[in-house]
Amino acid sequence: MKLLLKAIQHYIPLSSQDEDIITALFRQQKFSKGEHLLQAGQVCKNVFFIEQGLVRYYANINGEEKTTYFNKEGEFVCDYASFLPQQPSLTNIQALEASVVYTISHANMDVFYAQVEHGERFGRLAIGEVFVTAINQIYSLYTDSPELRYQTFYDKFPDIGQRIPQYYIASYIGIMPQSLSRIRKRLTQKH
Predict the structure, then answer these.
(1) Structural contact between residues 126 and 76, judged by C-beta atoms closer than 8 angstroms
(2) What is the DSSP string of 90-118?
(3) Where are the beta strands (DSSP E) in the chain?
(4) What interhelical angle do 166-173 and 146-156 show, nearest 10?
(5) For residue 101, what pLDDT is reported?
(6) Same structural domain for residues 110 and 63?
(7) Which positions fall inside the Cyclic nucleotide-binding domain (predicted)?
(8) Edge-to-edge strand order for the sheet containing 36-38?
């Protein structure tokens, strides 16, 4: 719970009363490697916070899995396009490792916003950060070379590259695994 409180304090100050409210609203949950936190077609009813573990977001497009994002320890996990309007998700969220998370339901998130002193500000800042990340990722897919997208991936996720299968990384940056091998070889030769 300390990691969760620290993550929230990144956005807003917390009083001891705020911490008590947050502790009461979040529940610990465990997921096995390969287990889904969310599957496409379900409504995303929770925001998750990863205390330990790693997840990937993916969509099935024309019968092929396309990895769209990763989250690790200390980060929030949610399909906000499903969570905010409470409509079915197009995204799957899967644990890549055994994971320990804290969850807060949609209803309890409303309580968080109402009862935690700067709760609404937290929501606005956190969602804004998610929005900017998504826009930058989409822009990168259209404008950056695969090599630059790979370098950006490693700049953004320097500590998890060895924890993720290479074919998920290739899917995330929008290339075939063979192309990723060539890019990695070229970058290794440059250094």
Answers:
(1) yes
(2) S-EEEESS-EEEEEEEHHHHHHHHHHSTT
(3) 27-31, 36-38, 46-52, 54-61, 64-72, 76-77, 92-95, 99-105
(4) 120
(5) 98
(6) yes
(7) 20-105
(8) 36-38, 92-95, 54-61, 64-72
DSSP-assigned beta bridge partners for residue 29: 101
| Structural domain span for residue 47 | 2-143
**Which domain CATH number covers 98?**
2.60.120.10
Q: How many domains does the chain have?
A: 2
CA 29 to centroid of chain Cα atoms: 16
Same domain, 103 and 156: no
Q: Which 3 state secondary structure label does DSSP give 13?
A: coil
124 and 78 share one domain = yes
Q: Does residue 74 sit in the same domain as residue 155?
A: no
pLDDT by 10s per residue, the chain, length 191: 999 999 999 999 999 999 999 999 999 999 999 999 999 999 999 999 999 999 999 999 999 999 999 999 999 999 999 999 999 999 999 999 999 999 999 999 999 999 999 999 999 999 898 889 889 988 998 999 999 999 888 888 888 888 999 999 999 999 998 899 899 888 778 76
Considering the domain architecture, whether residues 106 and 173 belong to the same structural domain is answered as no
